[in-house]
């Protein structure tokens, strides 16, 4: 995907997403997540592609290797540019996901990029320690998952901006660091815990930022998008 900010189209229905996009610039990077996809199916991805947008299909698959591999084989035909799994599913699952994507990608088409969620940006360190039973720092857990994803052949990870530079050191410049949890300096955090601004994301080495409510719920979403894009590109 190109490096423009990825707008999370977290809407219940395709018509809501299309209405939102009517007032936005063309040729965007957008994200279709569970809310839109699970209620409406794959057509929305094809339609967004026809409209000229690049699409990150964010379904965060996490199941046994065979199930994820076969699901990815099907998803490869949906036409997204990027898809994801949870790194916690393990190395076998991630390798099967990649094999499935490769097997399902139609001849002559580019395989969608495959990235793995490390620790959700809504997770804090105390919660990780007590609820997931993972001791140590959140940064250590994220780096561990990033290395596992890299060793499994994936193209990158989803992480917060706070871990992006350490992942660059561990996995290299070209390994994707897709960072949600983006807020303007005075923005509402909502349910996110590990947040940063577009400026800090650019400085920390994020390769992509994912921005939802800071744009979609702004009074003027097009102006909010332009501000995010300008700050992100002023790297
Ligand atoms: O995989 C994701 O996109 C994702 C991973 C993560 O750790 N945190 C996270 O917020 N996301 C997604 O990024 C978007 C963030 O939305 P906002 O918090 O509204 O900017 C949502 O669509 C989330 O599903």
From TrEMBL:
Molecular function terms, GO-annotated: orotidine-5'-phosphate decarboxylase activity
One GO CC term on file: cytosol
GO biological process, one term: 'de novo' pyrimidine nucleobase biosynthetic process
SMART domains assigned to the protein according to its UniProt record, in alphabetical order: OMPdecase
Annotated keywords: Decarboxylase, Lyase, Pyrimidine biosynthesis
Reactions the enzyme catalyzes: orotidine 5'-phosphate + H(+) = UMP + CO2
Pathway(s) where this gene product acts: Pyrimidine metabolism; UMP biosynthesis via de novo pathway; UMP from orotate: step 2/2
Enzyme Commission (EC) number: 4.1.1.23
Residues the entry annotates as binding substrate: 10, 31, 58-67, 121, 183, 192, 212-213
Top-level EC class as recorded in UniProt: lyase
PROSITE patterns xrefs: OMPDECASE
Matches recorded under InterPro entries: Aldolase_TIM, OMPdecase, OMPdecase_AS, OMPdecase_bac, OMPdeCOase_dom, RibuloseP-bd_barrel
Domain Orotidine 5'-phosphate decarboxylase: 4-228
Active-site residues (renumbered): 58, 60, 63
Record carries keyword Lyase: yes
Xref: Pfam families: OMPdecase (PF00215)
Family matches, as NCBIfam families: PRK00230.1 (NF001273), pyrF (TIGR01740)
Similarity-based family: Belongs to the OMP decarboxylase family. Type 1 subfamily.
The protein's assembly and partners: Homodimer.
HAMAP family cross-referenced by the UniProt entry: OMPdecase_type1_B (MF_01200_B)
Role, per record: Catalyzes the decarboxylation of orotidine 5'-monophosphate (OMP) to uridine 5'-monophosphate (UMP).
Name used for this protein in its record: Orotidine 5'-phosphate decarboxylase
Lineage: Bacteria, Bacillati, Bacillota, Bacilli, Bacillales
């Amino acid at each position: 995907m190109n490096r423009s900010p990825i707008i999370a189209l977290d809407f219940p229905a395709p018509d809501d997403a299309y209405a939102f996009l009517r007032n936005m610039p063309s040729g965007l990077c957008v994200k279709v997540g569970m809310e839109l996809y699970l209620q409406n199916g794959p057509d929305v991805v094809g339609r967004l592609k026809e409209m000229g947008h690049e699409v990150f299909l964010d379904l965060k698959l996490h199941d046994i290797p065979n199930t994820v591999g076969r699901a990815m084989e099907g998803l490869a035909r949906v036409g997204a540019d990027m898809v994801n799994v949870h790194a916690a599913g393990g190395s076998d699952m991630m390798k099967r996901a990649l094999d499935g994507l490769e097997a399902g990608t139609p001849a002559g088409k580019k395989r969608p990029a495959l990235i793995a969620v490390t620790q959700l940006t809504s997770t804090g360190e105390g919660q990780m320690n007590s609820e997931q039973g993972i001791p140590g720092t959140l940064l250590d857990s994220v780096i561990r998952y990033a290395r596992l994803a890299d060793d499994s052949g994936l193209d990158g990870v989803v992480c917060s901006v706070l871990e992006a530079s350490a992942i660059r050191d561990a996995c290299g410049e070209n390994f994707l660091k897709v960072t949600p949890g983006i807020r303007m300096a005075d923005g509402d955090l909502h349910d996110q815990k590990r947040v940063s601004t577009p400026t800090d994301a650019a400085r920390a080495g994020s390769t992509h930022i994912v921005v939802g409510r800071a744009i979609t719920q702004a009074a003027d979403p097009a102006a909010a998008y332009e501000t995010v894009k300008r700050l992100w590109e002023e790297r």
